[in-house]
């Protein structure tokens, strides 16, 4: 199993975070091979097998796992010390109609799912809090990344100027073509819109970075992955594959003080 890690997070040994790729799992056919889409119709529950293997391989002690059933919105869930559920794995909770997760508790694994939408991680090293946000074009038009920053400010007292963010791989401006019905929602971001054959190609990763900056996150504290899920075969792509494909997972978890010192 191969997970992507991000250079800007190397200075935070207390944070385990990254994104899965499509390689290294047991799924076959259109879901080959490391499909994390546990809510899709992957035969023989192979996505669950992949998920269990992924969780087991993480270098952190877990007591709670939280995943989203995403609706392209701005609702967030806060993971604290409340007892977890056990959906298909002990300690595994699922949050319906939720696109944003956050926690300040060690050992709580946050998981969100992706085909081409933008995964956004925000980390607060001052308050040891972390959040994940799923933001497609709908979520981006609703400023879901801002909802994450504002939620962390409300829940943990996070200062935007102290935050660090990663905009992970997603459909890139090289490939992501949209019609006027979508591009018209982003006229304030003209630098992230490229005219193309009567339509536009859109830089959703760039727009989300601009949204983070508008919230007060320093530009130098935002890492933007150059990788495009549509033209890089390390990823599943909902658009490239006509909607019939697997999913990657973005993940984040805080280590305990003892684990960091070990």
UniProtKB/TrEMBL annotation:
The lineage of its organism: Bacteria, Bacillati, Bacillota, Clostridia, Peptostreptococcales. CDD domains: YfiH. Belongs to the purine nucleoside phosphorylase YfiH/LACC1 family. This is Purine nucleoside phosphorylase. It catalyses: inosine + phosphate = alpha-D-ribose 1-phosphate + hypoxanthine; adenosine + phosphate = alpha-D-ribose 1-phosphate + adenine; adenosine + H2O + H(+) = inosine + NH4(+); S-methyl-5'-thioadenosine + phosphate = 5-(methylsulfanyl)-alpha-D-ribose 1-phosphate + adenine. One of its GO terms (molecular function) is hydrolase activity. SUPFAM superfamilies: CNF1/YfiH-like putative cysteine hydrolases. The keyword Zinc applies. It holds the Pfam family Cu-oxidase_4. It comes from Acidaminobacter hydrogenoformans DSM 2784. Keywords: Hydrolase, Metal-binding, Transferase, Zinc.
């Amino acid at each position: 199993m191969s997970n992507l890690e991000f250079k800007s997070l190397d200075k935070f040994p207390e944070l385990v975070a990254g994104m899965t790729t499509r390689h290294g799992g047991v799924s076959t056919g259109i879901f080959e091979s490391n499909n994390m889409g546990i809510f899709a119709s992957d035969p023989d529950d192979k996505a669950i097998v992949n998920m269990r293997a992924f969780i087991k391989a993480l270098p952190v002690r877990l007591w709670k796992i939280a995943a989203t059933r995403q609706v392209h919105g701005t609702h967030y869930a806060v993971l604290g010390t409340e007892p977890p559920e056990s959906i298909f794995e002990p300690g595994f909770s699922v949050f319906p109609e939720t696109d944003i997760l956050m926690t300040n508790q060690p050992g709580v694994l946050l998981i969100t799912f992706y085909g081409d939408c933008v995964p956004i991680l925000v980390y607060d090293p001052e308050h040891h809090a972390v959040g994940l946000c799923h933001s497609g074009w709908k979520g981006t038009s609703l400023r879901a990344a801002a909802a994450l920053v504002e939620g962390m400010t409300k829940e943990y007292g996070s200062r935007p100027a102290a935050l660090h963010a990663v905009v992970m791989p997603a459909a890139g401006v090289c490939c992501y073509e949209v019609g006027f019905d979508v591009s018209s929602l982003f006229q304030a971001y003209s630098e992230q819109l490229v005219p193309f054959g009567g339509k536009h190609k859109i830089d959703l990763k760039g727009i989300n970075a601009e949204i983070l900056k508008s919230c007060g996150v320093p530009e130098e504290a935002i890492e933007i992955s150059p990788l495009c899920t549509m033209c890089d075969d390390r990823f599943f792509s909902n658009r490239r594959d006509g909607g019939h494909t697997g999913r990657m997972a973005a993940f984040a978890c805080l280590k305990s003080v003892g684990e960091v010192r070990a």
